[in-house]
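Hello,

Our lab assistant flagged a job as stuck in the queue for most of the afternoon. It eventually completed. Since we weren't sure the result was trustworthy after the delay, we are filing this so someone can double-check. Below is the sequence as submitted and the structure that was eventually returned. Let us know if re-running is recommended.
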Amino acid sequence: MKVALVNFAEYEKFNSTVSFKQDLEFLVENKIDYVDYCFNYDKKLDLLAGFRKALANPEIDLIWFVCGGNKTIKFLDDIDWEVVKKANKIYAGASDFTHFSFKAVQNGQVCYYGTSLQEIKKYHPSPKSRKYLADFLQTGKIEKYNHTNLYKTVSNLDEEKIVGGHTFLTTFMLNEVKIDLRDRFLFLEHHYIPGESLEDLEYFVDQIKMVTKGNLPKGFIFGHSMLFGKKGKIMNVATINKKMVEWLREYDLPIAYIDHFKQIVKFS
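-- returned structure --
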């Protein structure tokens, strides 16, 4: 499988980032067949042109958004979604990628949520922990979900449609796009801004509860959320999940957990 590397999230030359050397090593070590469309560009028009070239390249199977940030929203109206549908690639990314993935799914495309290339060895420090990513980038296939049931039982999760992403980006995009959640599970993960607490997360969950009135999903899937505790240490994900279950169990819908640091999640 041939992978195109693009960037919508930051106006930054990817090859100037601190982690670039190690990020590139990951691609080389795992013999990932890739084409660079973003390494030396930091202007919006150049990054957009790179994405369009990736769409137009018939050899490209997967378009991978290499980093997170806060600029993807600026690109959405500049994308010709009819061209995206015609190209019919698959897409992967995380965090700010939530903006793109909602629009892509709305237009009938398949996205994979879980990781970016930037700092990949920081979040996946051992070759073993990176193997599932390398396998996906080589084959375009993901393993059967190894999920944990948190409330009720979610069976045959691999056969279900899923959409979602970062919590407050998901809230915005649910208002922006028209996606029927009634036949989908809603995936939610939250990664911190320093100082955010469980109370902050509850606010974001309350937003999601408001925007899904009349359009409730089949159930919820929690990703590997990250928050700081009172002493400034990263909270245990099980503690975060327990609170999120408390906030959402009023709907009496099944709730599961997928560690998206350890497996890719398909959005469609």
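-- support follow-up --
The delay was a queue issue, not a problem with the job. The result is valid. The longest strand covers residues 161-166. The first helix runs from residue 20 to 29.
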